[in-house]
Amino acid sequence: MILGAVLAGGRSSRFGGDKGAALFEGRALIDHALAALTPHCGALVVVGREWPGVASVPDRPLPDLGPLGGLAGALHHAQAIGARAVLSVGCDTPAIPAALLADLAARPGPTLVETLPIIGIWPAGLSAQLDAFVATDPRRSMRGWAAACGAAFVEAPPLANINTAGDLAALQDVAGAIPRG
């Protein structure tokens, strides 16, 4: 089983408010992330905050460590529930192609998206190695972690990544211009 993890513990300082709860096409950004993960995962979790109707776990070992703190929390939760791996996404990428997530879910070893490294597949057995990396690497970067654990990279089509309210407004404008139906 794969655990789908939405990493949502950031402060959203550039966004200026609760980014995970911000609406895109009538749904919260976190709900878009959960919907993208659902077909590929046997269980779901939101990491770094509470979210209604979904299991939540804290960042590890403490909050405000960036995406690696969220990933560490997800990997430990995966081990606790017997999941073989974690498929991770951020709460701020509302339109992840299903084929990309399916490709990642099928991979046996750690693999992440070259242009957006928060999206990846991580064997649950990496939890202790990630704990050690977080404790000793002052930068705590996803790319540094990828190098430390020997992760592979995959390319992806351009993905919307919402960091500011302006990014969300621009995505809303583009989505509104696409004919539906």
Task: State the end-to-end CA separation.
Answer: 35 Å
For the record, the count of structural domains works out to: 1
Order of helices and strands: EEEHEEHEHEEHHEH
Strand content: 15-25%
Per the CATH scheme, the topology name is Spore Coat Polysaccharide Biosynthesis Protein SpsA, Chain A
- Could you give the order of strands across the largest sheet? 5-4-1-6-8-7-9
Profile the largest sheet: 7 strands, mixed
- The CATH superfamily label reads Spore Coat Polysaccharide Biosynthesis Protein SpsA, Chain A
Number of helices: 6
Question: Rough shape?
Answer: globular
Quickly give the CATH architecture: Alpha-Beta Complex
* Rg over CA atoms: 15 Å
Tally of strands? 9
Name the average pLDDT: 89
Secondary-structure class? alpha/beta
What CATH first level would be assigned? Alpha Beta
What percent of residues adopt helix (DSSP H or I)? 25-40%
Low-pLDDT windows of residues: 176-181
Which labels suit this protein?
globular, Spore Coat Polysaccharide Biosynthesis Protein SpsA, Chain A, 6 helices, two-stranded antiparallel sheet, 181 residues, alpha/beta, 7-stranded mixed beta sheet
